[in-house]
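Hi all, posting the design record for the shared folder.

TITLE: backbone redesign
STEP: 1 of 1
STRUCTURE INPUT:
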């Protein structure tokens, strides 16, 4: 059976040629390609600075440290995300404080955030899940009103927008370029900011605390990006608009035809980039049975995420038994269908047919 994959890296001869040019140049570590990738990514996000790092988790960790988040601090975030979001908070020595999500967008519920703020709260870390941005007007207002840092986990939302503003432009932005992301470099990450001081801290932290070579002004890490990754990223940037348009067209096709499950909700003023096309299996039907049925029909399905972060074994001992009813319900009901730009019309028709059999 020819399976329809849930995701697939979109690699062309352009990416392959870009990698060969770097290999032939002999300049493999963070160098001119990385600098150019940073420049072009900053322009994409409409910010002054973009700082490339080795992966998205590092981007989150460096962003937190550059915003002076550390031991004794609390960071408010969502329980419905990939574990890297919370691991980065823990790596910084801070404590995650979870706020439940909206049942329509699966993003953090801004109405619940102020109740979670304490004297120890240092930052709010929203996650733009699946490619749709959070309620950024509210989040910015709350952060400003309480003197908190705003750090965007935009790892699934490159080129997403909120009322005309780009993801990564509201505070300190973080992005992942993992192999299945809308823009990929295999591994890789980026931090975005308009703040000169934050940008300088990020550059030092990613490279052993150096501003000048061999002069170490603070504790840092080896989180540099390779020029091979940057070369792939540059090639992908050149095709990002086309790939994003294709994802949107695929999502529109599915939205117009799928009837058996609850389709995704896109809020007004949001530029959704469809990293995932996530539906809700409810009405008494079991999500896992639906996944099994689609898999048997040759359609790969993703569950993002089957266990909310606050219920993960590594977190339970740190925060105790916390109840997040909406996140826990969604973890039992969501599933993501293929929406990537390499799907054919036949693939899309098959997805619709099999989903509507559920």
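Okay, here is what came back for every position:
SEQUENCE:
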């Amino acid at each position: 059976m020819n399976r329809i994959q849930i995701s697939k890296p979109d690699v062309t001869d352009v990416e392959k040629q870009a990698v060969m040019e770097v290999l032939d140049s002999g300049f493999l570590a963070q160098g001119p390609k990385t600098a150019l990738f940073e420049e072009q990514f900053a322009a994409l996000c409409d910010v002054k600075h973009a700082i490339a790092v080795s992966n998205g988790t590092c981007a989150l960790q460096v962003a937190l440290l550059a915003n002076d988040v550390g031991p004794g601090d609390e960071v408010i975030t969502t329980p419905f995300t990939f574990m890297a979001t919370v691991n980065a908070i823990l790596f910084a020595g801070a404590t995650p404080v979870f706020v439940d999500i909206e049942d329509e967008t699966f993003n953090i519920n801004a109405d619940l955030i102020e109740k979670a703020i304490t004297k120890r709260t240092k930052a709010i870390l929203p996650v733009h899940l699946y490619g749709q941005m959070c309620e950024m007007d509210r989040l910015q207002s709350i952060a400003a009103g309480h003197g908190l840092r705003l750090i965007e986990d935009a790892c699934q939302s490159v080129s997403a927008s909120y009322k005309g503003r780009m993801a990564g432009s509201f505070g300190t932005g973080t992005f992942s370029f993992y192999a299945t992301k809308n823009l990929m470099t295999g591994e890789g990450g980026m931090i975005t900011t308009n703040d000169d001081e934050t940008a300088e801290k990020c550059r030092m932290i990613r490279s052993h605390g150096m501003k000048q070579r061999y002069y170490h002004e603070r504790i840092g890490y080896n989180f540099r990006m390779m020029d091979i990754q940057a070369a792939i990223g540059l090639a992908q940037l050149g095709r990002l608009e086309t790939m994003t348009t294709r994802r949107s067209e695929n999502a529109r096709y599915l939205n117009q035809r799928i009837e058996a499950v609850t389709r995704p909700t896109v809020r007004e003023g949001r530029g959704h980039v469809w990293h995932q096309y996530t539906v809700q299996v409810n009405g008494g039907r079991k999500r896992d049975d639906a996944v099994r049925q689609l898999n048997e029909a040759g359609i790969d399905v993703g569950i993002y995420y089957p266990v909310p972060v606050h219920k993960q074994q590594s977190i339970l001992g740190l925060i105790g038994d916390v109840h997040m009813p909406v996140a826990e319900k969604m973890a039992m009901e969501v599933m993501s269908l293929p929406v990537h730009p390499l799907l054919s019309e036949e693939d899309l028709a098959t997805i619709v047919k099999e989903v509507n059999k559920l």
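COMMENT: The mean pLDDT is 96.
Let me know if anyone wants the other runs.
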